[in-house]
Amino acid sequence: CSESDLLLAAAFVSDAQYNRNIPFKTSPEAVRLYHLYNHWMMRTATYFFIFLNLSLALFEEPAVYPLPFLATSVLEVLCLLVFLGRLTHFAKVTLHNVFWKDTKNICIMVAILLSLTDLAIYGVLRLYNVRSIRWSRIVRPIFLINFAESRQIRRAFRSIRNTLPEITYVFLLFMFSLLMFSLMALKLFGERNLQTAEGLPYFRNYLEVVFDLYVLVTTANSPDVMMPAFDFSSWYALFFIAFVIVNTYIFMSLFLAVVYNNYKKHLKNEIRKLAYMKRRKMIEAFNLLKEEEGEQFVIREARWKQLVKLVAPDTSNSHRELLLSISDDQQKGFVDKKSFVQLADLLNIQVVTLKIRRHPLARWVPALYGSAPSRLLRSIVRHRAFVWTYDAIILINAIFIALDEESPYISYAEWVFLALYIIEILLKVYTYEPREFFGKTQFWNWFDTLIIFAALTATILNATLKSTMKYNSQQILDIVFILRVLRLIRIVDSIQRFRVIMNTLINIVPTMLTFGGLTLVVYCVFAIIGMELFQGKIQYFPANSNAPHALECGNPALKDSLFARGKYCKNNFNNFASSFIVLMELTVVNQWHDILCVQPAKLYFIAFHIVMVIIIVNIFVSFILEAFFVEYSLEKSEVETAIEQKIQELGMGVQEDDLQDEQLLDNMESAEHELEREGGAKPQSKGLVFKIASKRYRTVDALLQRMFEAEIPLEDEGPSFEEILNLSPSSPLPRSPSSETAA
Is a pLDDT exceeding 50 seen at residue 584? Predict the structure, then answer.
């Protein structure tokens, strides 16, 4: 095969590894452009300009940090040119009919055109001192959603779109219930001349009743909204209890159930698309590089190494040798189709190459370091009881931090604890090889050492300043010691059932970034709309201000209002940052009704509550539920991939889950003899062992995909690219002709 075939095969394998489904051209020039398009520097630059474009709202009128219009407009034009260049690059590598049928590309082009048009109109009107609205700012989040790099955010939006029909029916039923209860409340309480605590009419206006009961669904005005009726008659409490049960508990739970059910259904469809797409791309790569060997087609060892070096250039030679020994486990000099299809999974498993090094003291003073007292001391440090002892010391230290800091005994105790922590670090450095102890992946060792030396520096500085200048920085020391107490997390992590929760929290971090992007899009849109609608309606004045209407937040209409009396004047839409803070408060839904100072704002805030709280937050909760279920089932069954099992069978692996951080180097030192007994002499000749990264660092999407792939036979090549893209949630699992023949 030619070098162009090798480059094309590398593109297919890379797409399979990172779950990309871009239908690119296969000409040599297009493939080279496609590799450049997917380069991490290109993706990083794209995200940088996307967030720069979004952050311009901080510097444009109304601005948090005002910049001249010329400066912001030049930056915006620069961002738009980068987006246009990125889109042009994408058009060069994809098929023309696919590019022009893709809605996201059309959206980007329209957004660029609208932004340039609006910028030009705004600039011209500004020259004539005519105030206008920058209406195109609302389309800026489109760039975050629609570029190819943001497929996770698009998947979240697809989940929302697919869930909307079912949510709509539930929401209509919920609104019917709300309107019915509001009508009953109007008839029950409206004619009894009741008043609120502020002296306002109680439940006299039907629309006001609807809004107050909608707020009650969020429990933000409970029990205040009930008290006038409850004071009149205790029996009226039954009405509000019934309302809360039906609308808050039943309907809100029903929203979550509907969202979760639809989310799970469409997530499975997305995952199986990815699984089949990955299988298809690996088959395409194999067909490009295959050679005939007897009655089967294979890929030669030399060509396989070239391919892996192209796909994963940062992989070490020893790592590649390990991957080859797994793919060609019988040392035949080639990789068959069945093993090659698993290459993408093999590359996705983080395998850390560890060099076995002797401790420097073992080389410099071997007699002393190898003596019986030295071995006893090192065995004590390696023992689990040593860790437990220092965890207990940390707990006692935490208690001392909470005690009276003015007591001299507490001050002396801090020196004692500091000395104990320094001794701990010195003992560990004496026991474990320093370069491995302070390795890149040894987070807790770095954390402990930095905290201890920060505490030592702060303590000495505090003592010096206190003796010379009577200055005490004990608060700084408290912060340092509180950080030290965070080591207790390791105790939680050592308990199996707690570890399930910890693993789930770690696994959802990448997806939290996705939902963070989704939230950023919603916040940006509502913040820009809010600034255009409510800018200048509310002003903030310092407490000692003598400005007119300072007590009414600069708006006479707010006199004696809950908003003014609650001193919520900083909750305004006068700039981008303040808008974000208000929207965050509305997401929490605590006291959110007090922020609504004008009647038209109620529709705006209700719309935000429906989009953000009822839909997006419920989808996020659905993901957490699914993540916990997957992690819990894997933890119970100890599921391992076939690749991990092969590594263990070869005796080359040091499984991180079976090792404590403090025991890792000790196991490495004795690994040579163990691996020789298990037939692992080949890597040991180079002084290497391999550590499989912990399962906790795999994303939930990867775990779900792995579970679905287990249902696909290895000989099944899957459907074509077009059939994969057209799969629907109700479609049966497709079978390719080759799999049917094999069956």
Answer: yes
- Other C-beta atoms closer than 10 Å to the C-beta of 291 total 11
Asked if residues 617 and 640 have their Cβ atoms less than 8 Å apart, the reply is no
Higher per-residue confidence, 286 vs 496: 286
- Angle, helices 408-431/372-382, rounded to nearest 10 degrees: 110
Phi/psi for 410 (5° steps) reads -65, -40
Residue 503 has pLDDT above 90, yes or no: no
CA distance 36 to 488: 45
Res 658: pLDDT: 39
Query: Quick check: 603 and 595 in contact, CB under 8 A?
Result: no
Helix (H, G, I), strand (E, B) or coil at 293: strand
10 Å Cβ neighbour count for 695?
Answer: 20
Among 174, 247, 219, CA closest to 593: 219
Q: Which two tokens stand for residue 314?
A: 């940062």
| Amino acid making up residue 83 | F
Query: Token match 């094999």: residue?
Result: 742
Determine which of 128-132, 395-399, 507-511 has the lowest per-residue pLDDT on average. 507-511
Q: Give the count of beta carbons closer than 10 Å to the beta carbon of residue 466.
A: 14
Residue 442 and residue 661 in contact, taking contact as beta carbons nearer than 8 Å: yes
Which residue's entry shows tokens 């065995």? 379
pLDDT of residue 121: 94
Any idea which of 12-26, 209-223, 433-447 has the lowest mean pLDDT? Answer: 433-447
Which residues are bridge partners to 689 per DSSP?
354
Return the SS3 of 295: coil
Give the pairing type, strands 351-355 and 688-692.
antiparallel
Weakest-pLDDT range from 311-325, 551-565, 654-668, 714-728: 654-668
Task: Note whether 197 and 224 are within 8 A (CB).
Answer: yes
Amino acid type, 669: E
- pLDDT of 50 > 60? The answer is yes
User: When comparing pLDDT for 288 and 399, which is higher?
Assistant: 288
Spatial strand order in the sheet of 688-692: 351-355, 688-692, 653-655
Task: Say how far apart CA 406 and CA 413 lie, in whole Å.
Answer: 12
- Residue whose entry in the numeric block shows the structure tokens 């303040």: 578
Q: How far is CA 212 from the centre of its chain?
A: 36
Using an 8 Å Cβ cutoff, are 623 and 263 in contact? yes
- Cβ-Cβ contacts under 8 Å for 735 (sequence gap 6 or more): 716
pTM: 0.74
Q: Which residues contact 32 (CB under 8 A, 6 or more apart)?
A: 7
From residue 484, how far is each of 74, 196, 442, 444, 554 by CA, in Å?
Answer: 47, 51, 16, 11, 47
Give me the mean pLDDT over the 540-548 stretch. Answer: 81
| CA–CA separation, 671 and 673 (whole Å) | 6
Q: What is the phi-psi region of residue 424: left when phi exceeds 0, alpha when psi lies from -120 to 50, beta otherwise?
A: alpha
Least confident of 152-161, 325-334, 490-499: 490-499
CA 241/CA 248 separation, integer angstroms:
10
* Average confidence score pLDDT of the chain: 78
Six-digit token string for 84 = 């246009």
DSSP one-letter string for 338-404:
HHHTTHHHHHHS-EEEEE----HHHHHSHHHHTSHHHHHHHHHHHSHHHHHHHHHHHHHHHHHHHS-
State whether residue 190 is helix, strand or coil: coil
Question: How big is the chain, counted in residues?
Answer: 743
**What Cα–Cα distance (Å) separates residue 161 from each residue in 167, 391, 477?**
10, 49, 51
Q: Are 575 and 62 in contact (CB under 8 A)?
A: yes
Task: Tell me: pLDDT of 484 over 70.
Answer: no
* Residue 204, both tokens: 């006299």
Distance CA 450, CA 425 (A): 11
Alpha-carbon torsion, ordered 63, 69, 70, 73, to 10 deg = 70
- Give me the pLDDT at residue 633, please: 60
Higher per-residue confidence, 708 vs 669: 708
